[in-house]
Design a protein that fits this description.
The complex is a heterodimer. Chain A is α/β, with parallel strands linked by helices. Chain A has 29 helices and 20 strands. In chain A, helix 9 crosses helix 21 and helix 26 crosses helix 28.
């Protein structure tokens, strides 16, 4: 692009959103979200119980994906009815609250990939949002965290896993920058998660065979990075086939390990083999295949290719429609919001938001609970930088996005214990020794850059011993127990015992903190309109609402009390003066009693001192009078002016807002108003005093400009203002007289 | 009460038992019967494919880790000749893993048709 000629466009080009790539639709490259010209028309021909033709291909032309779906993925008994449905009619059924989820599931099972894709392409964003609420498998929404770091530091992994658990994540996914570190990461994260909470599912995303091996040893409790692709070529490039994936799926189940697959629109385009098909159609094949191979769930919605989908028109909508498709195939939906899809905070929030308010089995299939730079999957859509934003969003909408506030003392305690637990395990199993400096840094760290003591060879050495010695999670349990971490040993043993029961193999299973399984089976989604479906319990709502930053009037009153001193002494009822040099500083009812600090951080007394000094510079005498019967600043200023010998008064609220008034004006028509109290300074109050003095002498000073700010001043201070005004109101006594005050015993 | 693959009841797998060194890997492995039960649950919840997966898994639950890993590896693209896959299927059949045997035979034919054999 050439440099814009006019400033407005140079300015716009410099905004962060313009770091994103935006592609012109190009179906030949797969750069189209919905309905590529070469997407097949849906069709299904069944003869003698065998699919002979599907989505524009005869059986003889089937590729591996077609064949597996045709032979395993469809409910042929529902096929005639489902394939005959008008696509728009089915789209309407999805948002029709009179049509049950069960009925949609039954019909979708008889639909080919092309059919279901065309149905869902009719849904608008608001309809998709409602559909997620209705169609997800599990009633209770949840969320998944990434816990990784640049150095595979076991102590930091454990501390961060415990922290993620404290913030409410029920699944934790780790991975490695160095493949050889994987077993060490799996143990460190599992131990840390167990310190944080019972029932956290843990996975370590690595190459398929190694991941399975770690699962068999109990080192991880679920698997997710089992990738499916929508074209045969990319599938094979991924070193698998539908049959090997189906076998792998059963292999996990055979060891009682939960597993979901990974797919996502744009992957085929990114890898250069989309066969001219739309992203959504190819994803429809992946989702149908996921069901066909017997996986219980899918993470999709772009994942690593989310930004490819985001680059084309309606791409973000297609990512959300992918999630819905998973739900309609009656599978667990882990809804992307994983890899960062935009440099723009606005765009990435926009991409997540409808999914967040709709609610899914896992809102993020990887919320980066660590800082962006430590995320070895690459930065996530949501990261440690955004946890408080996310908690505020939950509170704003009253929505359960799976997270909760964690207090600093609690997180400090958990991090310390997680680090101690991993040190004990690594020591007992002969995996590594950690020195105290490393441990202390890991406990305190906000990220791996804060742990210079970490030794990069430690996880590699530990991993070799784990693999060579055949260490299993049972060994970890025993080591924890021996070192005095009995509760954590019990929790990890629980995660092994639940494999025996197999209940968490069912669709969309998670464990609660008291080790109850929530799944399609035990916690089925029963949404059927307002007043039905999931609603947070009172206790859960309290977690959502009670973010640590919330302040009550009592909190504010307590904080203010620390700044209230006896500098302002009442000397008696205030009188009118006839001295032409007399300027009255009228202060609000709470001044010096309940409120001692203004919004800009100066004490109220400091503000008054500057006003007095400014008046003195102009040869005037300031007199302090507390106006007790109103909290309205205009009236305070006017009352002060009417008592002043000069006819000029200054009105000052305890929170710092100030004005200059004159006795002959109406309450709202003041001479100068200093309305943005948080931005005021000592100099501003001094100038206010000077200007008031000049008015008293009959001249017309140049009014002070309110300082400019592009900050969200109102967002920062309005809640405080509401509390401060409430305190003023409590101090206000109607029909009571103004009182003359003395500052530091200084004569009035 | 749920029985582990070893035959032990899961509520006997306690931390005390771990302390006494009395918990083996098979005490925390799922029993094929449990997988068949989970298959029925999945079937009852409108997912026959998940049920089929659990039935295949019930067969694999009896195989050792190395054999499971080796079969997975053989099924990856370009790893096996047609005869290799048939031999694996026969072996699985012989061990009672008939559903998995069928899956491997199906793969052998599909791979031959699409040129994925060695």
């Amino acid at each position: 692009m050439t440099e814009p000629v006019i400033g407005r466009f140079r300015f716009m080009d410099a905004q962060r959103v313009n770091l994103d790539g935006f592609a012109v639709e190009d179906p030949s490259l797969g750069l189209v979200a919905f309905d590529a010209p070469t997407d097949p028309m849906p069709c299904l021909v069944i003869r003698d119980g065998v699919v002979e033709e599907m989505d524009g291909k005869e059986r003889a032309e089937f590729d591996l994906i077609d064949q597996f779906i045709a032979d395993h993925g469809l409910d042929l008994s529902a096929a005639d009815e489902a394939m005959a449905l008008d696509e728009l009619d089915f789209a309407r059924m999805i948002v029709d609250l009179g049509v049950s989820r069960a009925e949609l599931i039954r019909l979708a099972a008889g639909m080919t990939p092309a059919k279901l894709a065309r149905c869902l392409s009719h849904l608008r964003p608001a309809e998709l949002t409602l559909a997620l609420t209705k169609c997800r498998a599990r009633r209770t929404p949840s969320n998944q965290a990434h816990v990784t770091n640049r150095s595979d530091d076991p102590l930091l992994l454990a501390a961060d896993a415990a922290t993620a658990a404290a913030f409410g994540f029920r699944e934790i996914e780790t991975t490695v920058p160095v493949l050889g570190d994987a077993p060490s990461n799996a143990i460190a994260v599992s131990v840390g998660a167990a310190v944080g909470s019972p029932g956290i599912l843990v996975q370590c995303s690595v190459e398929e065979a190694l991941e399975l091996q770690m699962g068999m040893r109990g080192l991880v409790s679920y698997a997710e990075t089992v990738s499916l692709y929508g074209t045969e070529q990319i599938f094979i490039d991924g070193d698998d086939t539908p049959w090997s994936k189906a076998f792998l799926t059963s292999a996990y189940a055979s060891r009682g390990i939960k597993m979901r697959v990974t797919s996502g629109g744009g992957a085929e385009a990114l890898m250069g083999s989309a066969e001219g098909k739309s992203m959504f159609y190819l994803e429809a094949r992946c989702v149908a295949l996921a069901r066909a191979i017997g996986a219980q769930g899918v993470q999709n919605g772009g994942i690593d290719s989310a930004s490819v989908a985001g680059a084309v028109p309606s791409g973000v909508r297609s990512l959300m429609a992918e999630n819905l498709m998973v739900m309609l195939r009656n599978l667990e939906s882990c809804t992307g919001n994983d890899a960062l899809m935009s440099e723009s905070d606005v765009r990435r929030t926009s991409r997540t938001h409808p999914i967040f308010i709709g609610g899914t089995d896992f809102i993020c299939s990887g919320f980066g609970s660590i800082q962006r730079y430590d995320n070895m999957f690459g930065p996530s859509q949501w990261n440690a930088e955004d946890i408080d934003d996310y908690l505020a969003m939950q509170r704003d909408w009253g929505v359960d996005g799976g997270l909760r506030t964690a207090s600093e003392p609690e997180v400090a305690r958990l991090r310390e214990r997680a680090v101690a637990a991993v040190r004990a395990v690594y020591d007992a199993l002969g995996l590594a020794d950690f020195d105290d400096a490393w441990a202390a840094q890991a406990i305190d760290a906000a990220g791996s850059k804060d742990v210079p003591a970490a030794d990069l060879m430690t996880p590699l050495g530990a991993s070799r011993i784990i693999m060579d010695a055949g260490i299993t999670m049972l060994d970890v349990v025993a080591a924890l127990d021996e070192a005095g971490f009995e509760a954590e040993a019990e929790r990890l043993l629980d995660m092994l015992r639940v494999r025996v029961a197999g209940d968490y193999l069912q669709t969309a299973a998670i464990y609660t903190e008291d080790m109850r399984v929530l799944s399609l089976v035990t916690d089925p989604n029963d949404y059927a309109g307002p007043g039905t479906g999931y609603a947070p319990s009172a206790a859960r709502q309290q977690q959502i609402d009670g973010i640590r930053q919330a302040r009550s009037v009592d909190d504010l009153r307590h904080e203010q009390q620390a700044f209230v001193r006896d500098d302002l002494i009442v000397v008696g009822p205030a009188q009118a003066s006839t001295d032409p040099r007399d300027v009255v500083i009228g202060v609000s009812p709470a001044t010096g009693l309940a409120i001692g600090r203004t919004l800009c951080g100066l004490t109220t007394v400091e503000a008054i001192e500057e006003l007095l000094a400014g008046l003195e510079e102009e040869g005037c005498v300031g007199r302090i009078v507390r106006i007790n019967d109103t909290i309205d600043l205009g009236l305070i200023g006017l009352t002060a002016a009417r008592m002043a010998g000069s006819g000029i008064g200054i009105g000052l609220q305890a929170k710092g807002t100030a004005l200059i008034h004159r006795r002959d004006l109406t309450p709202l028509a003041n001479l100068e108003l200093y309305s943005v109290a948080p931005t005021l300074t000592r100099a501003a109050y001094r100038q206010l005093g000077i200007n008031a003095g000049r008015h008293a002498k009959g001249s017309t000073p140049e009014p002070q400009r309110n300082p400019y700010s592009d900050e969200a001043i109102e967002a920062r201070y309005h809640t405080t203002v509401v509390s401060l005004v409430a305190i003023e109101r409590q101090c206000c006594r109607p029909r009571s007289e103004p009182e003359q005050l003395l500052l530091h015993g200084r004569p009035a | 009460m749920t029985q582990a693959r070893s035959g032990r009841q899961v509520d006997e797998v306690t931390l005390d038992a771990v302390r006494r060194g009395e918990v083996a890997a098979d005490d925390v492995r799922i029993h094929p019967h449990t997988l068949l039960h989970q298959a029925q649950v999945a079937q009852d919840h409108a997912n026959p494919q998940l049920a089929a997966n659990f039935r295949r898994a019930a067969e694999l639950a009896l195989l050792d880790d190395a054999q499971v890993m080796a079969t997975y590896e053989a099924l990856r693209p370009g790893r096996s000749a047609y005869a290799d896959l048939v031999a694996i299927a026969d072996d699985l059949q012989h061990r009672g893993a008939v559903l998995n045997a069928a899956l491997v035979r199906e793969a052998a034919d599909a791979y031959r048709a699409r040129g994925l054999l060695t």
